[in-house]
Amino acid sequence: MNLITKPDTTVRRIAAVGMYDGVHPGHQFLIDYLHTEARARGLRPAAVTFSRHPLSLVRPLEAPALLSTLEDRVEALAEAGADDIILLSFNDKLRRLSAEEFLRQLKRNFAIDALVLGFNNRFGNDTMQGIEKYREAGARVGVEIISAPEYRGLQAPVSSSAIRRYLTDGNIEEATKHLGHPYRLRGRVVNGNKMGRTLGFATANLCPADSSLLIPKPGAYAALVITPDGEKRQAMVNIGYRPTVSEPTVTTELSIEAHIFDFNGYLYDEDIAIDFISYLRPERRFSSTEKLSQQLADDAKSARKILSGKHC
């Protein structure tokens, strides 16, 4: 896999453009189709993506939380089969390009001779409607426009926006089905308030790697934590505002706390990842730390059962 961040015309390419947030099965299907068309034309398959979501510049208030870091997105695209990944900086200059101007830039800077247009995929500030309009624009600059069929796999229809809804609703199982893998949240372990340790449930407090990443619905989860040694370890995770230990009138920052079962390693300032497996319960306020401790014990028991394949 080649990550390309500046003009490169050393090989002739066929490309598909998209944000590819989460790189779900619909995206993987598009990359597979891109490979098929690449072989037929003797071109190198490339995925063209953006350093940030276009809406973060165009309409910031409507920009969605992201399902993957840029690093994870690039890695997943490579695993899906993109030989080249062309990373464009989405800025004011790029946002003002018409579809024809954008195609001309792809042709000139990256030797793209053909473009696979995914189902419902659109680009350019002129918001052209219909594949024929794109084909006409492509013909004027020497880029063949190919329409990809709609993904009709087991989880179809699938979209990043639907996956985001599942995660914010706490519907982890559906999110996993539509992503094709558990939702993963990366970050660094930072100091917390040490409350978990006093309750017998020491936690790793996660600071997400990117502030744009989606945080699932507050509550308790069964999860797997990938520690710096690469091991996947069973855990329970709590997301919330610590309502038992904070004054109800005080706004606190959202915390993401992972208690890793049977683990005593040192994780402060280390990078870890959390794979969310199942939602256990919503966030609650308890009348005492004793009742919170009992609930955490119940959560741990439920999480262990789920993670061992024995559902309650």
Q: Care to describe what's here?
A:
There is one protein chain. The protein has 10 helices and 12 strands. It is α/β, with parallel strands linked by helices. The strands form 2 sheets. The chain has a 6-stranded parallel sheet with strand order 1-4-3-2-5-6, sandwiched between helices. Strands 7-8-11-10-9-12 form a 6-stranded antiparallel beta barrel. Helix 7 packs antiparallel against helix 8.
Write down the overall geometry. Answer: elongated
Largest sheet: 6 strands, parallel
Structural class: alpha/beta
Percent of residues in helical segments?
25-40%
Order of helices and strands: EEHEHHEHHEHEHHEHEEEEEH
**How many beta-strand segments?**
12
- Tally of individual helices: 10
Q: Please give the alpha-carbon distance between the first and last residues.
A: 43 Å
Percent range for β-strand residues: 25-35%
Q: Taking Cα atoms only, what radius of gyration do you get, to the nearest Å?
A: 22 Å
Mean pLDDT: 91
The unreliable regions are none
Strand order in the largest sheet: 1-4-3-2-5-6
